[in-house]
Structures are given as C-alpha cells and as structure tokens.
Model the fold of this input.
Amino acid sequence: MHTQQALILALSFASAAFTSALPPNLKTRQNGVTCQTSDGSPDTGDVTDVINQLRGGGGKCPQTNGHASDCTTLVSHKGAAISICGGTDPEDEGMDCTTVAGYANQIQQACLSDGRAGGTYTIGPSQRVEVIHSE
Done:
C-alpha cells in the first residue's frame, strides 16, 4: 500500500514539474483552456473589466463574422478584448453572454502570468472564446 501511494505521489510531482516547465503559451488545460499568455497579452485588470462588462450586459452573444478569422469581438476595453469564434448560423441567436464571460474568466484564472492573461477556451469542434489584446 505504501509503495502505491509513493508511486502516485511521485507521478503527481513529475506531472506538475513537466507542466510548469512548459512556456505559458503552450499550456493546455483539461477544461478546454489553452494559454497563450505573452508580454503582448492584455493586463489582467483590463481582462477583468471586459469580463464584467460582458457579464453585466446580459443577453446573447452571437458570432456574426463569417469572414477570414470567423471571430466577432464582443467587448473591448483598453488593452483587452473578448471574442467568440467559429461558424456562423443566421438562425443561431448566440450563447448567453454570462456563459461567454464565464469562459473568459476561466481563461484569465488558468493563464495568469506576470499580471497578464490571454488564451482560448475551446467549447467544441467549431466554437471557441478568446481573451486577446485589443488596440
């Protein structure tokens, strides 16, 4: 029994050490978050502002851009923006904005590095939420 516990503990430490050794822009989390935080990522305070702006607005957040990036910027403030990306469907009213804000919050929490955060939450094979730098 003690050998099994020691092995589990050793594997846990090895896994944590491997994950922490990866650069932040290569970390993929099990909950759908892929971190892409760099020096060019938005300040976490600005990210919090856009999350709160999106959450406070309520309603639906449709993806309406069927060109090139397939991304629609939903909100932006100072250096941060939240976008929803994927295929467009004229019949689709979009996702609840509070749900999108929740995905953005998960990105911020998982990808925070040196006061900055950026990344993607993959919802499914054709839809994702991004926390990105805005001009």
